[in-house]
Amino acid sequence: MGAVKNKRMPRAVRERQMLDAAVRTFGQRGYRAASMDEIADLAGVSKPLVYLYLNSKEDLFTACIRREAKALTAAVRAGVQPGLPADRQLWDGLRAFFTHTAENPDGWAVLHLQARTHGEPFAAEVAATREELVVFVTQLIAVAAREAHRNPSLPDREVAGLAEALVGAAESLATWANATPGVSAKQAAATLMDFAWAGLGNLMESRPWSGSGPADGLHR
Amino acid sequence: MGAVKNKRMPRAVRERQMLDAAVRTFGQRGYRAASMDEIADLAGVSKPLVYLYLNSKEDLFTACIRREAKALTAAVRAGVQPGLPADRQLWDGLRAFFTHTAENPDGWAVLHLQARTHGEPFAAEVAATREELVVFVTQLIAVAAREAHRNPSLPDREVAGLAEALVGAAESLATWANATPGVSAKQAAATLMDFAWAGLGNLMESRPWSGSGPADGLHR
User: Fold this and answer.
1) Nearest CA in chain B to A218
2) A213 in Cβ contact with B157 (< 8 Å)
3) Domain A62-216 is in which class?
4) Which pTM does this prediction carry?
5) What value of ipTM does the predicted structure carry?
């Protein structure tokens, strides 16, 4: 980015460069402080071109939210193989989630911090993505309950509550992990998986979830 | 509220009425849509008096955030007895938290939804309260680890991560519980306690946390 000004560049490539620059600027400076001048500079294009392509600062921010939301849910879905046991799917999904948020800290800041702190219509865009993740986790928990066969009738409402708890915990941990030097995506995923699967009670007794293997557990 | 216009009313009482009206209006309508006219009407005072007491819409909103944040942390602290085992303290704290957010849905909406969706300086006020709750939970988890004696060395960073996960899960569940008819504070607390303490793995095998007694468990 920055130096590329080839006028024959396809529109899609230019637009991607603008969105890359915008996500970085919005994520690091916040929606209000971010300037269209800075975004245009970072993308290596003129400000009028940004307006021509993306219309307004608001539309540009909305486009950033949509792109980052789509990328996040796609990353989680790509990380999970539907045929595997539910705890494996959950572990794979959490690792994919935390890997994506760690590799795209500006995108995550746009989704979790910026989009929610500047009112509608941005908050609604993020709520839709969150709902998609909640539905996905809800299905996993429901499947796990059926697989265990010991509690096939875990009530829908309990399953929904557990899914809300898990997604809220993941959001909180992703933001914390990105702000805490030295916490890897895998560690964040292991912390949440142990918390979610084994529970604090078992952790206290040194019995974390064992599915990620001895090298991946919590206590090292 | 509404009908009281006694001019001899002490300032503290008047101010409380204004804040009650403001929390209700901000919580239900949102910061931007809420009007000072509506707040003054609901408080049963003139609009100039609201400005005289609270200065501006922004200052009024900040005063609401501070009052509701203080009330929430006080409720959680009041619900917990320091001498009890850590899992009992956690259960008591969660019940106090969900009871408070259920009884004060407008206050919770101001803290969790409104304050965070309107940028600084409001978001910073809420972040400070959240940090206080995280520190409190972090201490509980650290104490629990020491109590269990089997894992006295649970690393500080893991404890911090678990506390972030738990607080994020509680925030998410409180908002969900308030939006879902028929979910009681006790049910929300039981769902999170089971999730946090026993873990999903044990839940699948019908072994929830048993500390809240048979009548308080998850599966009924």
Assistant:
1) B158
2) no
3) mainly alpha
4) 0.82
5) 0.79
